[in-house]
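Encoded backbone
================
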Amino acid sequence: MDLWLQGIEAQAQTAYQTAQAQAKQLLEAGKYAEAKASLQPVLEVHDWPATVESARALLAEIDQAQQAGEVSDAPSAETSPTEMAATVEPEPLLGEAEVRYREALKPAEALVAEWKFRQAAAALADVTVDDPALAKRLAQRRDELQRLSGLKDKLIAAVAAASPPLDKMDLMLRGANGDVTGADDSGIKTQPKDGAPESHPWSGLKDQGRRKLLQLAVDPESGEDWLAAGLLMLACGDLTMAEKYYDNAVARGIKVEPYLAPLADAALTHVHGLVEGGKWAEAQTRLTAFENKYGRTDWMAENLGRLAALRNAVQGRIADAEAEKVFAEAVQKYEAWDWFALQSLVDKLRTQYAAAAVLRDTERKPSFAELAESVADVGKKLVVSPDGKGDYRTIQEAIDAAPPKSVIEIRSNGPFYEKLAIPADHPHLVLRGGEGFWPQVSSGGPAGTISELVTLAGKNAILERLVLTHQDAAGDVLVANVPCRIRQAIITGVKSRPEFNAGVELDAVFCASEYNLIVRNRPSKIHNSLLLSGLEASGEASLEIGNTLLGGATAEIRCPANMSRCILLPHVNLYRAASTISDSVICGDLKALENGTRIEHSNVASGKFVDFAKPGPGCFSADPLFVDRKNLNFGFLPASPCLRRASDGQDLGVRSNPEMLTIVRQAIALRQQGLIRF
């Protein structure tokens, strides 16, 4: 058994490393919620401290990145401020006069984007406005176009005077390299080594080409030149370089305040674009920096209303995004029947995010109203401790006293020699071991003979972190006649079995009962479990088994079943056509009694496909070469044919994870203490 534990530990460590790598990839991609979700199984393990510490450190890194917001590139150098403004919704943030003003400037700004500055100035000659503030801005824009026209003349002269002469590579011009022969108002002229003369429009220049020409044309000591260069960068949509060149102008004695309006306007439009693009945290950071930079300018005084509207929009979007995260977590708790955690999240949504859109969205299923209704009658938190330090000394006393939707936490390992019964009028009870405890509920001892050790009649019960061991031969270890969930539990019994007659969800369950585990009648799921007992499943509802080791003598599956990433040691009999097995190892015979069963990417080691069982894509038959089957170490030897044969390129069979490691360690420790047998 120690060898088995070593194998599980090795596989679990590999599984964690895979989860860690996946989380880091998702972090780099900015998918913070998915990165956190990939680490969640590790964080829920109680007794694997080294890995949990590493996972928590990575989670902190994810949180820090998420709080900083998504990293956004500056606007493209090919996008003008006018074009950026067209990609967002100006009406909610701009007055009617401002909207009309911008509409009137559109023809001229389109010419600016093509570097046709004199034509743009001519287009502005016909524009008139009545508002004094807008008239001032119009005059300012005409001045800017004159400066841009003058700078363009300097660029044309710089091309002609360049020594040594420029070639296309210097300016990163498209096409085969060649000499730059000159420039005029329409563009840059080139002569490839082989081919006809070319003309490249000014607006086609990329970042490197523009900066190269500015190095040639701008007098480093001229503040006027740096101001014009800033205006050009602004026209090209490069806000970062525009601000840099403005700072150079200021350093040389130029008062740039009259020219900040278009830069401020473009910067704010960029923030608006971040809001519309869903990058609210970055928008808030940029908006704060924007206010600090332009807070004392005339432009700011004229646009306080617009700025306030944008800040409200940013804060509203951030609040909505935060509310969405809380709501998603609440839905998870709702689906997990975790009523107390859900109640806390519902209260948080009510008090901190009352105005969030998600609270009013009635199309969601479940809606916020449904979440709130589900916790309106939440029960109590009760503690069981035999030493009298809790609410009750025995588990059944707590069950009898608990109203629906209560949590009973057991803070002792026991053993508790008592029969447990959750009656029908006690639905939605959670019965779990407290942190650091694995309570053992057992027959024998002072309780005497017990027929059924645990009976569940209250629907949707959850049993978690419990050890159920039935040593009497009078009945089953657990009988559930209602839907229930069993998580991180150990179940053993002599001449007994767990029996689920209305469907069940098993997750991280170690079952070593002498007789087959039984699942009937309603949809059921079994994941991350080790069922050393056999399995019998029946009924019309589906059965899903994933990442599970199944032992025993036979697996009798009389309902539609989907099994993936499993190791199935016994003979497997599939009675329904709508069944599949994939990415698994089947050591016994495989029999299908109806045509249509699919077997894919699996090793049927015996090679015996009986009746309608047929090998599908990726199937083969070979000795799986387990490390030590006799000692239950079902890892693979290096020469195993099961390595990298799954549909996703990984190994076939069970992929051990931290939850499975926890349950196996606990089962082995209890066996070594003589408390359970298997």
